[in-house]
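Entry for the shared binder. Reason: the reviewer on the internal report wants the predicted structure included alongside the sequence.
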Amino acid sequence: MAGSAAGSVSEIGGHEIGGHEIGVRGTVADGFEDVREEFAAVLAEGITESGAQLAAYVNGQQVVDLWTGGGMAAGSLTGVYSVTKGASHLVVALLVQDGVLDLDREVAHYWPEFAAEGKERLTLRELIGHRAGLIGVDGGFTIDELADDRVLAQRLAEQRPYWEPGTAYGYHAFVIGALTGEVVRRVTGRSIQELFEERVRAPYGLDFHLGLPEALEARYADVLPMQPTPEQLAELQANAPDPNSLLGIAFGFNATPPTDLVEFANTRAVRALGQASAGGVGSARGVAGMYAAAISEVDGRAPLLKADTIAEFCPLYAVGTDAVTGEQDQFGLGFQAMGVRYPFLGADAFGHSGAAGALAFADPGSGVAYGYVRRRYAYPGGAAEENDRLTAAVVRAATS
């Protein structure tokens, strides 16, 4: 992508881990020095000791390109989990924008088998809004099944929903991309992965893949397991979900054996097939670059999304409590409404976090596109806490 950050390569605050001194490396544009200092402060606290990357664009120009050592280089790729959902639903948004998909059509209009078990009236809008009640299947999925969206779609079409479709909202953690992806396949004859490659990744040269080629495997840095403190471990154990609860079903804990989230990302089949809910592989540059292309002119190309498409997909879709996670609603259509957690962003800011701590989003009002990727699974999961500081630093610099 054109428009790299200005400034010279820098290394801030040498920090020794495992006998090796690491520091913040990379470049920032003039005016974004405080972002580099904030990233260095995060490193000094040991939060990113296993490697992390931070990238940001403003109005299509890259202004931040930073990384730390600890097993993750500038060009490293790693599992980004649910950041993948943003890529998948960017494809859906483009197809709605093109008039190929109608949000208010029943899913069964496109995918007749989906009508089984009382799902015939669910609309595409409700499906993308996590309202299908189809968060998993009885008995769970194997890792091999989870890797393959076609297998997931077939099993989910036959499954009775866990609540009356359309009546509640609940996070479809591992399956939303397979569900919307099957609609895309039935209408276009192409997979979400193929359309993402053709319309988004390849034209912009993004290091963000829904289906990592074998030739790029050497660049993959394994996701590392969480290292909770004794207090954090006790809290995780005390709050461990019942495998047959809605939370347990949505995250695969009802499977035998229960789904291991780290093993999932580090499974080659998941990366190769680019599972559309959580199987994407990328870098901070790649995920930030995707959102830059979504809202800004990049390399002479018009923004991928028009203003009315953003207005349709990105604000809060419904207000209420997530039936799966118990959290207050934070979703638009497919994307997370980012202004809920980060109130300094606009009401139409949109993106998605990832289970290990990654975060990527676009804020049309400020022109900011942000990407953060870390290798070590963050406690307690979801967007890592350091994103609170890093996103604020980026937006301050962009708007000052």
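Summary line for the report: The longest helix spans residues 83-97.
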